[in-house]
């Protein structure tokens, strides 16, 4: 087995509308922070130390994935956000973001979500806060961004901030703590209500893969946010995943093809940007040896928008993808566990 590092790698409209309405009821602008200066300054700890925000932000920039979702759900339209080539439309805007911003001015687009930060374009937007709670910033990038505006980075590890923590941290930074908590509770309730319709998922074990990597199966560990989303739905990570994980905190590792018959689980969940990529994965001889595949428990998530929504989950993207995601999982669980 080998390891890759972390860095190598709303109905739907109703919740989006209610999220924006909730934030609007707070009395704050949809282009800036919360009302007045109550609660400021606020200091938020993160992986690079801590950041103190002296007053309610008025010009918020977001980098990487998911951060723009949370700001928008809280009623704060960023002044700048990245281009999403994977899952976005021709203008680089994700579909749930496009839905949530309908009728509003679109933020400036700067840089690409999964590439190095566009420092100059971000600085040109003159932000007074940069949200990066779900990102892969390194120390040098954080330091450079901090010379532009206060940066709220991830609390612990790169690309490992849960959708719940993303929302609560952003709520503190934007002066909308109560609204953030309400969004978390509403999203959890939406998840619970939706999964109750699929009792066959309760307790089903799964392995989550991104496909084959040089003849080896890529496996995501429970610390990965897409795995945690499935656990939020009542599924369980197959014991094999942690029992065979290498030492260290990497969220992803690979398993040799000859060992795949030992990868016991009810489901094999995979994500692929296109049907061709899914077909190529299915055609791998080693994949056919996996117990979940032999039991017809393969559950592919196909399409860049679905993959983006479920791989960087947020209070906007979860409701958007849920009605597509759950039936795929449930059908595979029904076949595998019959």
From TrEMBL:
<dbReference type="Pfam" id="PF01497">
    <property type="entry name" value="Peripla_BP_2"/>
</dbReference>
<dbReference type="InterPro" id="IPR002491">
    <property type="entry name" value="ABC_transptr_periplasmic_BD"/>
</dbReference>
<protein>
    <submittedName>
        <fullName>Iron complex transport system substrate-binding protein</fullName>
    </submittedName>
</protein>
<comment type="similarity">
    <text>Belongs to the bacterial solute-binding protein 8 family.</text>
</comment>
<keyword id="KW-0732">Signal</keyword>
<keyword id="KW-0813">Transport</keyword>
<feature type="domain" description="Fe/B12 periplasmic-binding">
    <location>
        <begin position="59"/>
        <end position="333"/>
    </location>
</feature>
<dbReference type="GO" id="GO:0030288">
    <property type="term" value="C:outer membrane-bounded periplasmic space"/>
</dbReference>
<dbReference type="InterPro" id="IPR006311">
    <property type="entry name" value="TAT_signal"/>
</dbReference>
<dbReference type="GO" id="GO:1901678">
    <property type="term" value="P:iron coordination entity transport"/>
</dbReference>
<feature type="signal peptide">
    <location>
        <begin position="1"/>
        <end position="23"/>
    </location>
</feature>
<dbReference type="InterPro" id="IPR051313">
    <property type="entry name" value="Bact_iron-sidero_bind"/>
</dbReference>
